[in-house]
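Sharing a chain and its predicted structure for anyone who wants a worked example. Both blocks are below, sequence first, tokens second.
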Amino acid sequence: MKDLTFEKYLSFDSSKANLDFVVELVGNDITKFKKLMDLALNASPIVAMRAAHVAERISRANTEMITPYIDIILSQFFSFKHQGQKRAFTKAFSRLHFTEDQLGRVVDICFNCIDNPKESIAVQAFSMEILFNTSLKIPELRNELQLILEERMDEGSPGWKSRARNYLHQLAKLKKLNESN
């Protein structure tokens, strides 16, 4: 299968049926997934966004497929030309395990995303999720996460505020639990 075939299907449309078809085409084939990731990282913005979405969907069932690409995704994250790429990859990141070095980079990216009102709400929401879940393992992140959520509360959309309030509530519960122990 040539790269052009993936690009042709991904250029066609972003319907669920079409993306499901590409997910089936790639399956668990590492060579095809490599070609898909090349499109997700290097194709035109629309094709790259759709390829990233397919990669995220494949990673739901098989996180090992996307794991070899974590470092390159992290290094290119802020140069992606379409918010859909960032959305797909932050969604995938919410389910992945990272090396210590990768985790530090993911945490930095997520804090930058939350602190940037120009980032899409979805990217910010997945970033909140990643940071909260990471703070369960690294409690030192909790104060910084709390501060940034409180600072941005006035600027966020209703959905953003709702999610932030939920995480702030959970952080407060964790703080009380830690103080009582």
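Comments welcome. The mean pLDDT is 92.
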